[in-house]
Amino acid sequence: MKSYNNRLFVNFIILTGSILAVLGFVLGQLFPFYIESYFSKNNIDLSADQIDQVRKQFSFIITFLIFLAFALISFVANNLLRNLLDPIENITQTARELTKGNYRSRAYAIGPASIVELRNSINILARNLQEIEKIREIEEERLKTLIENMGSALIMIDREATVSIVNRQFLDGFELTIDEVKGKNFLTLGLPVELEKFIDHVFLTELPYRKQIEIEVQQEIQYKQVYGAPVVGEHGRWLGVVIVMHDISELIRLEQIRKDFVANVSHELRTPITSIKGFSETLLDGAFKDEKMLISFLEIIYQESNRLQMLIQDLLELSKIEQHGFSVDIAPTSLQEVLIRAVELTSPRLDEKNMQFNVDIVRDVMVMGDFNRLIQVFTNLITNSITYSPEDTTITLRIKENNEYGIIEVEDQGMGIEKGEIPRIFERFYRVDKARSRNSGGTGLGLAIVKHLIEAHNGKITVESTVGVGTCMKVSIPLYK
Ligand SMILES: Nc1ncnc2c1ncn2[C@@H]1O[C@H](COP(=O)(O)OP(=O)(O)OP(=O)(O)O)[C@@H](O)[C@H]1O
Ligand SMILES: [Mg+2]
C-alpha cells in the first residue's frame, strides 16, 4: 500500500512538474515579445542591453514563481493523498488480519464519511466473526466434553477407513495412545477381530447395527454391547461410521450369579425335600409299625425340615440385607459386650466339641455399630470356627484398634482354607468342602450375610488362613470418636 501511495505521489509530481515546465517554457518564450511590444507601444525607448536585463529579471521571477507553485502544490498534494490513503491502508490491514483469523483486530481510521462507514462495517464484521468463533469454540468444547465423558468407548472412522475421532475410554480399553490411533487405518490398530468384523459390517451395509460381542483384553474376557451407525453429512454425503461400545461384563456377571443362585437354591431345597419325601413314603409303606425305625425316620424328617427352615430363614435374611436401602442402626457400641454375647450364644456348641475360648482383650474399644447385627456377625464367625475345627482345640478372640477401626480377630486351629478359595467363601452357597459342610448342617449363606452386614457398617473383613493350621478372620468396624 505504501509503495502504491508513493508511486501515486511521484506520478503526480512528474505530471505537475511537466505541466509547470511546459508552462514556464511557453511563458519564457512569450514574455520577451510581450515586453518589447509593451515598450514600443508606450514609446519607451530602451537600449538592447536594458531590454536584455529586464528580460533576464522577468525570466528569473517566473522561474522562481513556478518553483514556488510546484513546492506548494507538492505539499498540498502530499497531505491530501495521505489523508485519503492512510485510513484505507489501516482498514485494509485490519481486513488482512481478519483473513488470518485474528478476529480481535479493529480498524481505527478517521476520514471522510465514506471511510468512517467502511471502518464501522469492517469492525462490525470483525465483532461478528469474533462472536461466531466464540460460539464455535464453546460448541467444540461441549462436544469434546460429551465425547470424553459419555461413559462408553467411542471411535469415528472416516470414508478412507482412518480414525478421525476417538475418546479416552476407547484408548484406555485397548491400551492405545492417541498418536497410535489418530489418522491411522483402523485395521492397523490391532483391535480384536470381532470388533474389526463389526466395523467392516457397518462399512459394507451402511446401516445401523447393534451386537453383543465377546472380546479378550489382557487375557480377560469382556462383554461389550456395540452400536455402529453410518455418519451422513449435509446433502446426504456419506462421511464414515461411528462406533459406540458399552461394557456389559458386570451385567453378564450378575446375570450369571442370578442363574447360579436359582440353580443353587433349587439344589439346596431338593436335598432335604427328597429325603423327607423318601422317609415319609417308607414309613407310610409300613415301616411305621417298627417303632425303632419310626423314631429314627421321624428324627431324620425333623432334622431335614429344620434344615429347610434354616435355609429359608437365611435366604429371607440375605434378601432383606441385600435390599436397596437396607441400613443398620449405628450407635456407639462396645466390642467387648458384643463378644461376650456372641460367646454366650456359641458356648453350648463349643462345649459339645470340648473346645475352649482364649480371650485376649487388653482394653475395650468403642465402635460405631449396630449391637445386634454385630452379635450376628461374630456368632456366625465363631460358629464357623467351631464347625471347621477338630475337637479339643482353642478359639482365640482378640480386640485391637488402629487410627480408624476397632478390630476383632477370631482365630481357630481348624482345617484352614486354601488361598485360592478365600475370595470365594463370601459367595452365596459357596462351600470349600461341599459334602463335609453340608453334613455340618451349613447352608453356605453365613459368610455372605456377614460380609453384607460388615459392609453396611462401612467396615471390612479379611481372612488369613493356612490349611491344616487354622484360620483368622479379622473384622474392622469404624471407631467411635
Ligand atoms: N473358620 C473356618 N475354617 C475353615 N473353613 C471355613 C471357615 N469359615 C468358613 N469356612 C469355609 O467357608 C465356607 C462358607 O462359610 P459359610 O459360613 O458361608 O457357610 P457354611 O458355614 O457352610 O453355612 P452357614 O450358612 O450355615 O454358615 C464353609 O462352607 C467352609 O468351607
Ligand atoms: Mg457358616
UniProtKB/TrEMBL annotation:
SMART domains on file: HAMP, HATPase_c, HisKA, PAS
Protein's membrane topology: Multi-pass membrane protein
GO biological process: one example: cellular response to phosphate starvation
Keyword Coiled coil tagged: yes
Top-rank taxon: Bacteria
Keywords: ATP-binding, Cell membrane, Coiled coil, Kinase, Membrane, Nucleotide-binding, Phosphoprotein, Transferase, Transmembrane, Transmembrane helix, Two-component regulatory system
PAS domain ranges (all copies): 139-187
Annotated ranges, domain HAMP: 82-134
Domain annotation Histidine kinase: ranges: 264-481
Spans traversing the lipid bilayer: 12-35, 58-81
Enzyme class: transferase
Catalytic activity: ATP + protein L-histidine = ADP + protein N-phospho-L-histidine
EC number: 2.7.13.3
InterPro entries, alphabetized: BphY/WalK/GraS-like (IPR050351), HAMP_dom (IPR003660), HATPase_C_sf (IPR036890), HATPase_dom (IPR003594), His_kinase_dom (IPR005467), HisK_dim/P_dom (IPR003661), HisK_dim/P_sf (IPR036097), PAS (IPR000014)
Phosphoprotein listed as a keyword: yes
Pfam family membership, one: PAS
PANTHER family listed in its UniProt record: PHOSPHATE REGULON SENSOR PROTEIN PHOR
Name of the protein described by the UniProt record: histidine kinase
Organism, as annotated: Lysinibacillus telephonicus
